[in-house]
Design brief:
Length: 289
């Protein structure tokens, strides 16, 4: 017991006799350089609000610390109220208001929301679901990206946007379309999609014998004689389990449609590129998982 007390007393004495340790300097708070910070912006839909409200909204966007604004994403019916008649006065005004606030502008192609005059005159542009039902006008992304009629109208509206704003220094970049999905109803099963899937298969395999071999079509007598006999795999058209190779290639084809040439993406990019700086960003909005 005495030994324990003596040790404790010695420890306390040493603590008092030891010189005070110098205070450690407080480290400065680390801050990322402004150039390394994420650019933050907002989607703004002026067509949904009274024109008298636009200046206030743009000022608030700046006040909240935003750096850029997206405009025109679903506004095809306002940009082209009737076929061939284009109205960009409202968009001109909002680009100017954004610039007055020092905001960068990202203009969006309005392609995910075709106007009623287009879908009424050309109902074949509407997608067909797995039950064979052609979708009706409304919501968004209800048009089929494979239909050439739709792609021609896309090229027209995108071309008009490119000619008007392509060299506008206030426009920082372009967004191509919106979210390339049919919100759980993809792929489209219309005749145009069937033909494009068949053409994609022919381009990949060359000969039908190669497809039969790689798909293992000897099983269950699934052999095909021609590429035009193959349809997009639809669970509602099969009695039992369908060929997984068939499904895998359909997914590959759909990925090529959505990532490689969506909505005439090549045409859209060319139309914008011819009219704008080669350094202008042309991003795309990623769909939620």
């Amino acid at each position: 017991m005495k030994r324990i007390l003596l040790r404790a007393l010695a420890t306390i004495t040493l603590c008092y006799l030891a010189p005070a340790m110098p205070a450690q300097p407080t480290a400065a708070a680390f801050k990322f350089p402004p150039a390394d910070l994420m650019n933050i912006g907002v989607y703004y839909y002026p067509e949904a609000w009274p024109a008298a409200q636009w200046p206030r909204d743009m000022a608030n966007i700046k006040k909240l610390g935003m750096e850029f604004g997206h405009l025109g994403e679903f506004a095809w019916a306002f940009m082209e109220p009737t076929e061939g008649h284009f109205d960009f006065a409202w968009l001109d005004r909002n680009v100017a208001l954004a610039a007055e606030q020092g905001l960068k502008v990202v203009l969006c192609t309005p392609t995910p929301a075709p106007p009623i005059w287009l879908t009424e005159a050309h109902p074949d542009v509407l997608m067909v679901d797995a039950s064979g039902r052609r979708q009706v006008h409304g919501t968004r992304q209800h048009a089929c990206w494979s239909v050439e009629t739709y792609r021609r109208y896309v090229a027209k509206i995108v071309g008009e946007l490119g000619r008007r704003y392509g060299k506008d220094a206030r426009v920082w970049g372009w967004q191509l379309d919106n979210e390339l999905t049919h919100y759980g109803k993809e792929p489209c099963f219309c005749d145009a999609c069937q033909r494009k899937f068949q053409a994609w298969l022919k381009n990949k395999y060359g000969e039908i014998a190669a497809l039969n071999r790689d798909w293992g079509n000897a099983f269950w007598s699934q052999l095909y004689q021609r590429f035009d006999q193959i349809r997009l795999p639809n669970t509602r058209e099969f009695v039992a389990q369908f060929n997984p190779h068939h499904m895998l290639d359909a997914q590959r084809w759909f990925d090529a449609v959505t990532s490689g040439r969506p909505l005439g993406r090549r045409r859209s990019t060319i139309s914008l590129g011819r009219a704008s700086s080669s350094t202008t960003p042309c991003p795309h909005r990623m769909s939620r998982g």
